[in-house]
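Sequence in, structure out.
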Amino acid sequence: RLEEFLKKEVDLELSTLPDFEERVIDVSEVEQLMNSINAIPAPCAPVINPQAPNAATGTSLRVCWGLFSDDTVECYQLCYTPVSNERHSDEQAEHTLKVKETYCTITDLLPNTQYEFWVSALNASGTSPPSERAVYVTAPSPPTIKDKKIRSCENAALVCWESRDINPVDSYTVEL
């Protein structure tokens, strides 16, 4: 029998390719998981502080914020816009500043004007959601004393002034 078998021609070619040669292994999910192990998460939203006493002049405001978590933060993005009933004026432009600290003094503002501020934290993984918005107010301009209307006598003086501010001023302090 062996002799007969060896005399026969045997075709050793396979008619189809084996399954393992056609398969492509997708490792993208594994790569993504490996990359996420060393990645830091995007930070949480910062918390903007309310306006502190004496944190404003007629043309500047000091804005402060903080984080509730131990997030890694490379910098902050502070945004602000003047508060106004008119939504399409040129002064309504939104301003954005990149800041390394958790505070910033903004200058060149209008006196006795409300500004709305919000802040986001940034790191290599992305940007946090914005903080709640906080409204800060610049100090009013000093009033102009009307020299021609000043009157005085032995026990009294009459001093008149006018405000240079568009928005109403709550009160004045007169010093002698």
